[in-house]
Design the sequence.
């Protein structure tokens, strides 16, 4: 190793001196750590300059001064800590002593309070007993005051009736009714019973007196009006006085309405508390309906007596087979009474501030009689299909006239809710299905089942629906009209399910008849079945967009009706909810499949005959036909005449027996199939001279296409293969050579993966009018030309 330099020796000496000086105050420090630190420190302060070593003494003095300062600070801090700790301990001791004093005081006060409460307990017991006695006495006083008030009101009513102060008596009775309402939550049952008996007693007396006077006035006004009112009735001499009495009595009866409602409710509650031997009936009007106006109740009494006299018991007019008798009678009473109610009663109600319609109230009262009667008759007719159907028909007709002629509000119940009772609704559905099936059997076996009743009227026979199909859809429409007015969507959906079941049943019957007629698809009955399927499908499609059926569709989704939505997945139900589908989609799919099968069989049978007629035409000598200039006049090929006649006759026949939409499908399908036959069996199976190609084009464009020109403007668009093949075969030689070379080069380049040519084969074909045929097909057609240069 090299000997240390002078500088290094000097640095080592300085380091040793510094270590010795620092070791005095840092004996516990690691020596090596301090040595590294001092070496770094000396490098920083002195560096490699030897001339700066003269400042080492100053640096050592500086370090000693800093060391002394640090020692003084440590001593100062150590001397100041004990007084602070001592002060904190003193404060804690004082807090502890204060807390003990407080706890001692708390125990003392708690003991005194406990002693005070023990001493006051007898006083508290005595006070509680006294307050209980006071409360009992107070309740007894209130009970006696209430009893006294009832007696005072009763005496007041008696005094008012003795002095004919009816208004005062009515006010007193109303006070009794208000008091009864106030005691409704009370536990004083005897007081309540006494009050209600008193109220009922005086209410009956006042009501009987007013009702008697009111009936006398009504008799003078010729109420009830049984027959239609006449305009020739002369007013009575005291008409003004009678009208005044009428208004007074109606107003007083209206004032008695509150107590009458209360008495009626109590009587109804007491009747419901007794077990009834009568079966529950849906004829009971909904409980939320307000009670009838008291004057109208009295006016209904003579009509009610007449109704029960004629339509109950052993009277000849009480016949289960004639529900129209009492239904018509009630409608007549409503119509005959309308003028009287509007002119006599309604103005009084308006002046009294009653927000009710006199005519509506009268209709409600009469309807309650009819509801009871219909409910009774319906339950007795559940085992007689004919009479039950007749009753349903009459009820539906009554409901229609009630809503339209009498303007009865739709929010109030009529008679239809009676038909929604489970047993009656199920019976109705069963009878509807039974009679519909019987009618289907009859209509399909009728003599003119497969002929259209409008066959002689061209403007009305576009769909050419046979009589059986039209009768069936009329049957479904009648069922719809019957259940359309029902107030319950769930019941309506049950009838919709029945209709769908009937449609499917009718489709199966049509399929069975079609299989019997499938041996002759061109027959009139086979085409009539096809027309029937198309007619039913068209009507069901229209129903799917009908507002009524769309509402039923929404109701089915919201109610989750299994009878209608059964078997549908989440996606199908979602489509129904968004109104993208219809409830008839499943049936329409089945009908469309049947229609497609029948149309395919019809076209297949037709094409079989046409193809047979096409064979001579395909075997013609196309290669040896002379050019066009050698013939003075172009004529139809003789071998094509049978085919053309067959096509013409079949088109005329299909046009006569098929509906217009079906015929559109038929001739287009026929054109497509004929295009394929001519292209495959005639064109691709022969070679053509120039004359043969021109003759083929003449036969097609001037003879075949015009046969379809009666049904569209451009029939050649339905014979794309034949039309474009004729274009290729009739190209002049130069154009044909250029086109052939282009197509061959394009074919070779496609095999060698060469880039696209300009012009492309497709654009070249489009220029000559070829859009459907592929380039390879065009090459085949060009090779069918017999005349090429050099051949």
Sequence:
């Amino acid at each position: 190793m090299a000997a240390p330099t002078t500088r290094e020796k000097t640095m080592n000496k300085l380091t040793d001196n510094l270590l010795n000086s620092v070791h005095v105050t840092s004996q516990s420090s690691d020596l090596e750590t301090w040595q590294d630190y001092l070496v770094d420190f000396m490098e920083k302060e002195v560096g490699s300059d030897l001339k700066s070593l003269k400042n080492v003494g100053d640096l050592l003095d500086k370090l000693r001064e800093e060391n002394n300062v640090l020692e003084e600070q440590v001593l100062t801090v150590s001397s100041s800590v004990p007084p602070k700790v001592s002060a904190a301990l003193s404060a804690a001791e004082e807090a502890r002593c204060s807390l003990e004093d407080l706890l001692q005081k708390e125990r003392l006060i708690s003991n005194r309070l406990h002693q005070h409460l023990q001493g006051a307990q007898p006083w508290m017991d005595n006070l509680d007993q006294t307050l209980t006695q006071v409360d009992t006495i107070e309740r007894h006083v209130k009970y006696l005051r209430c009893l006294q008030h009832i007696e005072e009101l009763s005496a007041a009513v008696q005094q008012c009736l003795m002095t004919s102060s009816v208004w005062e008596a009515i006010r007193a009775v109303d006070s009794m009714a208000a008091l009864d309402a106030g005691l409704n939550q009370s536990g004083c049952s005897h007081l309540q019973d006494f009050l209600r008996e008193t109220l009922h007693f005086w209410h009956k007396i006042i009501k009987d007196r007013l009702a008697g006077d009111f009936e006398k006035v009504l008799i003078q006004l010729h109420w009830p009006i049984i027959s239609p009112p006449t305009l020739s009735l002369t007013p009575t001499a005291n008409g003004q006085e009678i009208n005044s009495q009428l208004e007074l009595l109606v107003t007083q009866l209206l004032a008695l309405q509150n107590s009458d409602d209360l008495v009626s409710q109590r009587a109804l509650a007491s009747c419901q508390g007794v077990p009834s031997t009568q079966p529950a009936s849906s004829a009971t009007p909904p409980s939320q309906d307000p009670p009838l106006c008291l004057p109208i109740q009295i006016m209904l009494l003579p009509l009610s007596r007449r109704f029960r006299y004629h339509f109950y018991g052993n009277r000849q007019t009480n016949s289960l087979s004639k529900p129209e008798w009492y239904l018509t009678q009630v409608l007549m009473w409503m119509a005959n009474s309308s003028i009287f109610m509007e002119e006599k009663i309604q103005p009084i109600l308006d002046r009294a501030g009653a927000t009710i319609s006199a005519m509506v109230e009268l209709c409600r009262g009469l309807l309650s009689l009819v509801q009871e009667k219909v409910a009774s008759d319906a339950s007795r007719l559940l085992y007689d299909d004919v009479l039950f159907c007749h009753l349903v028909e009459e009820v539906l007709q009554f409901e229609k006239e009630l809503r339209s002629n009498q303007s009865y509000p739709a929010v109030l119940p009529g008679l239809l809710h009676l038909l929604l009772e489970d047993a009656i609704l199920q019976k109705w559905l069963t009878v509807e299905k039974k009679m519909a099936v019987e009618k289907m059997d009859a209509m399909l076996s009728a003599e003119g089942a497969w002929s259209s009743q409008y066959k002689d009227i061209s403007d009305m026979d576009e769909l050419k629906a046979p009589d059986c199909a039209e009768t069936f859809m009329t049957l479904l429409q009648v069922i719809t009209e019957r259940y359309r007015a029902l107030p319950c969507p769930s019941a309506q959906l049950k009838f919709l399910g029945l209709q769908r079941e009937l449609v499917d049943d009718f489709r199966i019957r049509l399929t069975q008849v079609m299989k019997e007629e499938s041996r002759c698809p061109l027959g009139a009955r086979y085409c009539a079945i096809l027309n029937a399927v198309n007619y039913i499908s068209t009507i069901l499609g229209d129903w799917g967009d009908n507002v009524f059926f769309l509402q039923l569709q929404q109701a089915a989704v919201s109610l989750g009706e299994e009878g209608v939505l059964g078997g549908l997945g989440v996606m199908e139900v979602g489509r129904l909810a968004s109104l993208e589908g219809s409830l008839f989609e499943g049936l329409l799919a089945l009908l469309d499949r049947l229609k497609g099968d029948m149309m395919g069989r019809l076209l297949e049978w037709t094409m079989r005959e046409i193809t047979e007629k096409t064979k001579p035409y395909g075997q013609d000598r196309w290669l040896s036909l002379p050019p066009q200039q050698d013939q003075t006049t172009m004529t139809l090929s003789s071998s094509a005449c049978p085919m053309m006649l067959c096509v013409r006759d079949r088109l005329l026949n299909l046009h006569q027996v098929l509906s217009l939409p079906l015929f559109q499908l038929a001739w287009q399908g026929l054109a497509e199939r004929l295009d394929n036959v001519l292209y495959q069996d005639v064109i691709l199976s022969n070679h053509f001279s120039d004359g043969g190609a021109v003759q083929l084009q003449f036969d097609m464009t001037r003879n075949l296409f015009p046969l379809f020109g009666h049904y569209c403007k451009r029939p050649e668009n339905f014979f794309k293969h034949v039309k474009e093949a004729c274009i290729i075969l009739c190209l002049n030689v130069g154009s044909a050579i250029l086109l052939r070379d282009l197509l061959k080069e394009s074919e070779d380049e496609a095999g060698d993966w060469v880039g696209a040519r300009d012009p492309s084969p497709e654009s070249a074909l489009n220029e000559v009018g070829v859009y459907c045929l592929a380039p390879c097909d065009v090459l085949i057609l060009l090779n069918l030309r017999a005349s090429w240069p050099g051949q």
Observations:
- The radius of gyration is 55 Å.
- The CA atoms of residues 396 and 481 lie 10 Å apart.
